[in-house]
């Protein structure tokens, strides 16, 4: 994966209890880009 293909959430956290951690966000979106189903990722 190229550096330009990766995007991250902002580091500033305001009321962060409902936000997804950056590592988890990256994992979810990486797997989705690899055509893994949403259902499979959610499991």
Describe the 3D structure.
This protein is mostly helical and 43 residues long. Helix content is 40%, strand content 0%.
Shape: flat
**Rg over alpha carbons:** 12 Å
- Ends apart, CA distance between termini: 24 Å
Determine the mean pLDDT.
Answer: 77
Tell me the total number of β-strands.
0
Helical content class? 25-40%
Count of individual helical segments: 2
Low-confidence stretches: none
What structural category arises from helix and sheet content? mainly alpha
Q: What order do the helices and strands follow?
A: HH
Write the layout of secondary structure elements.
Blueprint lengths: L21 H12 L4 H5 L1
Please describe the structure with a list of short key phrases separated by commas or semicolons:
mainly alpha; flat; 43 residues; 0% strand
Provide a quick synopsis of the model.
With 43 residues, the chain is mainly α. 40% of the residues lie in helices and 0% in strands.
